[in-house]
């Protein structure tokens, strides 16, 4: 049985949300079942995707998009080449529009405004790729227009009680993971975290395993490794300094966690990044 994993999402450095080209764009790609707190949109501009949302299959073709709600289990199969833009939006962006119990839910059915929303996403991604003066303002202007469409056209008001119950449990865990994301540089043991939130260490450990599909230590490492990845790409800091900056005891521990997540050692990854940049420059 395939383990359902929790996905850690961090916004783009220069935007309040995350936007990127789907990593399965070259085809022959499968993203196994996973979930996350963020609201997510997959917008297909070329090719097709086989999308599985709560065990229901959707075939997304050119011009289609799908909205993934917070905590919904989904997987993606991309057998062929495609161009798909993915947007991942923090749940708190919608807090004024929660339907109850800190919850919001979106549906996707073909409607007249689908084309309008796809055009917005396309324009946002093109502006982000070009990065002309003021690109971040233009993107955010389009982004909030898109959010307006989402809450006025796609929001569902009546939600099944079972969905709300599951959401409540995941919300409890999300408060804890949000704290971890803010304090990841500190020495934050399971016992210390449990004490802060009034749980026993064993109960908190079970909560992580049951609702996140990952243990506490691995989740903490994932946060630190993601920050380390960014610093490898965006700064000239040494690997040793990056390790210490992000809560790892030494660069050996960081390298081990980085290899486990990305399949390559940090030094080799940085070397390839610089080589790729030099090729583009020349």
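-> sequence recovered:
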């Amino acid at each position: 049985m395939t383990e359902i994993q929790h996905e850690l999402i961090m916004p783009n450095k220069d935007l309040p949300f995350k936007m990127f080209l789907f990593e399965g764009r070259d085809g022959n790609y499968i993203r196994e079942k996973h979930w996350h707190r963020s609201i997510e949109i997959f917008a297909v501009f070329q090719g097709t995707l086989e999308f599985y949302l709560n065990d229901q299959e959707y075939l997304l073709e050119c011009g289609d998009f799908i909205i993934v709600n917070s905590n919904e289990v989904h997987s993606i199969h991309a057998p062929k080449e495609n161009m798909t833009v993915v947007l991942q939006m923090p749940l708190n962006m919608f807090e004024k529009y929660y339907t109850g119990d800190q919850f919001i839910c979106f549906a996707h059915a073909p409607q007249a405004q689908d084309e309008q929303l796809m055009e917005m996403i396309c324009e946002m991604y093109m502006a982000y790729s070009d990065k002309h003066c003021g690109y971040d303002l233009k993107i955010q202007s389009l982004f909030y227009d898109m959010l307006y469409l989402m809450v006025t056209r796609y929001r569902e008001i009546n939600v099944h009680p079972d969905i709300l119950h599951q959401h409540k449990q995941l919300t409890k865990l999300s408060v804890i993971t949000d704290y971890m994301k803010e304090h990841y540089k500190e020495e934050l043991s399971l016992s210390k975290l449990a004490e802060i939130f009034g749980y026993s260490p064993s109960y908190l450990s079970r909560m992580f395993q049951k609702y996140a599909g990952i243990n506490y230590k691995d989740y903490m490492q994932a946060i630190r490794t993601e920050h380390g990845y960014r610093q490898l790409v965006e700064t000239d800091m040494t690997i040793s300094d990056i390790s210490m900056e992000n809560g790892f005891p030494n660069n050996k521990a960081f390298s081990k966690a980085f290899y486990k997540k990305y399949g390559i050692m940090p030094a080799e990854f940085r070397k390839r990044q610089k080589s790729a940049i030099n090729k583009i420059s020349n």
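The radius of gyration is 20 Å.
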